[in-house]
UniProtKB/TrEMBL annotation:
Keywords: Cell membrane, Membrane, Transmembrane, Transmembrane helix, Transport. The chain crosses the membrane at residues 37-60, 100-121, 133-153, 181-204, 240-262, 288-312. It is a multi-pass membrane protein. Residues 96-309 form the ABC transmembrane type-1 domain. The keyword Membrane applies. PROSITE patterns: ABC_TM1. It is found in: Cell membrane. It comes from the Archaea. GO terms for biological process: transmembrane transport. Belongs to the binding-protein-dependent transport system permease family. This is Sugar ABC transporter permease. One of its GO terms (cellular component) is plasma membrane. It comes from Halapricum hydrolyticum. InterPro entries: ABC_transporter_permease, MetI-like, MetI-like_sf.
Length: 319
């Protein structure tokens, strides 16, 4: 008797569970999430195909010996030969070194200069809003505009840079044609464009810090320099990391700037970076598989920049 009652109770419980699942499924299909799917689903699908599909296809190409549109990739014979060639290629070594120098110098100087400008603006200088706009304006320019502007600035005969240093009895210098000067000239132009961005990031961080800390440091007899150096700047770690990641990503995307400035896939030796080598190997030499391997190396470098940032944000509870 008890076993039959248990069976009936179990059947009733099972039917109730099935009905509950059906009710939840009906609520799900009627939810705003599902009804809005045509608006977010299609863009998500296109982004997935364009971004992640492209990444997967590029990696597959790098494992073949694909030479261009006139042939089909042989996906049945995948190997790491292109990566072995890339790791032993002196051109890859040179461009990787230039990329690293550009990455470190551009990011470091932009951060320091942006922090300096942010501290000045944080001290409530006169015409603060106008100064902020002036320094931020270059960030609104595209790489193409910035490249053409500084190409004129560096002009050997009529450029403003040589004209100014000529007032001090120096120059003129061939900033673009001299391999020992051109990388520095490019880095300076990029710093001019992005230091305003780092200034805004640091200024936002400074304005989020309570004035009570300044007052406490003043009461303790600390100077303005010591207050910023020992109390305020250490609290800008999050701003520093965020700005550094953005700057490094832009540094890895330098191809547009270099092509706009020099008009060729092969810029001067001092500024030949992995991005220009990648495009040159693909579109000039038709070595698509080899170019894809260089692109994958660039992707790995980007992930090495982004992954620690995401981990830091996770540790800070921001993700």
């Amino acid at each position: 008797m008890e076993s039959s009652q248990d069976a009936v109770a179990g059947a009733g419980t099972g039917e109730h569970a099935v009905e509950d699942r059906r009710a939840r499924l009906r609520r799900f299909w009627k939810s705003d999430f599902v009804r809005s799917a045509p608006y977010w689903g299609i863009p998500l699908l296109l982004m997935g195909l364009a971004v992640y599909g492209g990444i997967i296809w590029n990696i597959l190409i790098s494992l073949t010996d694909y030479q261009g549109f006139l042939e089909r990739p042989d996906y049945g014979n995948l190997d790491l030969e292109m990566y072995r060639q890339a790791l032993s290629d002196s051109a890859v070594h040179l461009t990787a070194r230039n990329t690293f120098v550009l990455l470190v110098a551009f990011t470091s100087v932009s951060l320091v200069l942006g922090l300096f400008l942010a501290v000045l603006l944080d001290r409530d200088i006169r015409e603060k809003s106008k100064v902020q706009t002036i320094y931020l304006l270059p960030m609104a320019l595209s790489f193409v505009v910035t490249a053409q502007f500084w190409l004129w600035m560096y002009n050997y005969n009529d450029g403003l840079v040589n004209t100014v240093i000529g007032l001090f009895g120096l120059g003129p210098y061939n900033w673009i044609g001299n391999p020992s000067l051109v990388l520095g000239a490019v880095i300076f132009a990029l710093i001019w464009q992005f230091s305003g961005y780092t200034m805004v990031v640091f200024l936002a961080g400074l304005q989020s810090i309570s004035n009570d800390q300044f007052e406490a440091a003043r009461v303790d007899g600390a100077s303005i320099f010591k207050t910023y150096w020992r109390v305020i700047i250490p609290q800008l770690k999050s701003s520093s990391v965020s700005a550094a990641v953005v700057l490094m990503i832009f540094a890895l995307k330098i191809f547009t700037f270099l092509y706009a400035m020099f008009g060729t896939y092969r810029p001067p030796k001092g500024t030949d970076v992995l991005a220009t080598l990648m495009v040159r190997e693909a579109f000039q030499l038709q070595k698509w598989a080899y170019s894809a391997s260089i692109a994958t190396i660039l992707l790995a470098m980007s992930l090495l920049v982004i992954a620690p940032y995401l981990y830091y944000q996770y540790r800070e509870g921001a993700l």
